[in-house]
Structure formats: structure tokens, C-alpha cells
Amino acid sequence: PLRVAALASGRGSNLAALIAARLPVEFVLVGSDKPSAGALDVARQAGIPTVAMQAKDFADRVAFDRALFGAVAEARPDLLVLAGYMRIIDASVVAAWEGRAINIHPSLLPKYRGMHTHRRCLEAGDTEHGASVHFVTAELDGGPVVAQARIAVGPTDTEETLATRLLVEEHTLLPAVVGAIASGRLQWRGLAMFDGKPLEHPLDAA
Ligand code: GAR
């Protein structure tokens, strides 16, 4: 099966949904930049190995990224899922993952890259909001979008109601995309598919 690693900074509800979807994948590692992240508990309860590292323990941002993504590479995932990972990753580190990492972002990209997407949607007076799954590139929230979920925005909505309603949609969106990748229906830049052929691990050379 497709070997999947995930990185998450928060409670891990998207990770939980991904696990609960019972896709034909093997979760090889869940990593976090926050040792107290709920996502690590979700992983432990599912029997998935975990790793947590804190940026403050490293000389600089790049050293931290190299260490965390190095640990991920050692687990030899075919696909890396950023499931609520809240740090900007250095471009030099991201480069090695192009075509084999996806991110879920709470906006209808290309709208509202970065933080505070619900607030920005409300401030703009948008009548719809959504979440996007995209392949990760060096450009923050800028890689090719592969799937989106939409919700209507009403006059009484707040950041909190939007976040809550959107999360429900995210929980089917992310498993749908991972399922499509696992079955070989979706790829970008030669992500090694589980199609009966051996999966490639170009990171082994790094
Ligand atoms: C999700 O809403 C996800 O889209 C968002 O963080 C939340 C994580 O929730 N991701 C980003 O904002 C990425 N920049 P979860 O920990 O319950 O899955």
C-alpha cells in the first residue's frame, strides 16, 4: 500500500478523519512541531509511530526543517500529508517533496493564502467559503489545487461557525484526495503510485 506520513500542529481532526476513512494506505509516521499536539495522541491511539520536534531546540528555521523532514524521510513515505501543519517550510526543504506532498488549507485557493482565512473571508463579504487540497510547492499555499469543498456564508456567520462548518467538509475532502492518490487516479510530477510497480524513494539519495 501507499506509505503515508503526516505532519500536524494541532488537534488532529483531519488526521483522525484520514485514519477513520480506512483507505488502502499504511501510516508510517505522524510528526509535529508541537509536542502537545492532539494529532500525536490521535496517532498513538492508532498505533502509528510519532515524532515531535520544537523549533526552539534548533539553531534556526532551516535546521529545524531539515531535522523534522529528515525524520519524515527516514520513514520512507510515498506521500506526505500536511494536515493542519502551521509552519512555513523552507523552500530548500520543500523542494525534495515536490509531487509527493499535499496540504489542506481552509480557503478557496487562490484566495487567502496564509493565516486567518475565515476572518478574511468575512471581511471581504464573500458569500461562499471553502477548503482546498493542493500539492505543496515552495510557494506558500501556492501549489496546484486538486480538490475543493465549498460552504455558503450567511449573515450571522462568525470565524468560529465558519471554521466548524468547514471542518466537517475537510474531513471528507482530505480522505477523498488521499484515496485518489492511493488508487493512482491522481498524481502530479511523477509521485510514485501504488500500481503494482515498486515505489520509488528519491529521498533515499539525500
Ligand atoms: C484545518 O482547518 C486545516 O485546514 C487548517 O488547520 C486546521 C487543522 O485542524 N490548516 C491550515 O490552516 C494550514 N495553513 P485539525 O488539527 O483538527 O485537523
Automatic annotation (TrEMBL):
It catalyses: N(1)-(5-phospho-beta-D-ribosyl)glycinamide + (6R)-10-formyltetrahydrofolate = N(2)-formyl-N(1)-(5-phospho-beta-D-ribosyl)glycinamide + (6S)-5,6,7,8-tetrahydrofolate + H(+). N(1)-(5-phospho-beta-D-ribosyl)glycinamide binds at G12, S13, N14. Keywords: Purine biosynthesis, Transferase. InterPro entries: Formyl_transf_N, Formyl_transf_N_sf, GART, GART_AS. Its EC number is 2.1.2.2. Gene3D superfamilies: Formyl transferase, N-terminal domain. One of its GO terms (molecular function) is phosphoribosylglycinamide formyltransferase activity. Pathway: Purine metabolism; IMP biosynthesis via de novo pathway; N(2)-formyl-N(1)-(5-phospho-D-ribosyl)glycinamide from N(1)-(5-phospho-D-ribosyl)glycinamide (10-formyl THF route): step 1/1. Residues 3-178 form the Formyl transferase N-terminal domain. The active site is at H105 (proton donor). Pfam families: Formyl_trans_N. The record marks D141 as: Raises pKa of active site His. The keyword Membrane does not apply. GO terms for cellular component: cytosol. (6R)-10-formyltetrahydrofolate binds at R61, M86, R87, I88, I89, N103. It is an enzyme of class 2 (transferase). GO terms for biological process: 'de novo' IMP biosynthetic process. Belongs to the GART family. Catalyzes the transfer of a formyl group from 10-formyltetrahydrofolate to 5-phospho-ribosyl-glycinamide (GAR), producing 5-phospho-ribosyl-N-formylglycinamide (FGAR) and tetrahydrofolate. PANTHER family: PHOSPHORIBOSYLGLYCINAMIDE FORMYLTRANSFERASE (PTHR43369:SF2). This is Phosphoribosylglycinamide formyltransferase. It comes from Luteibacter yeojuensis.
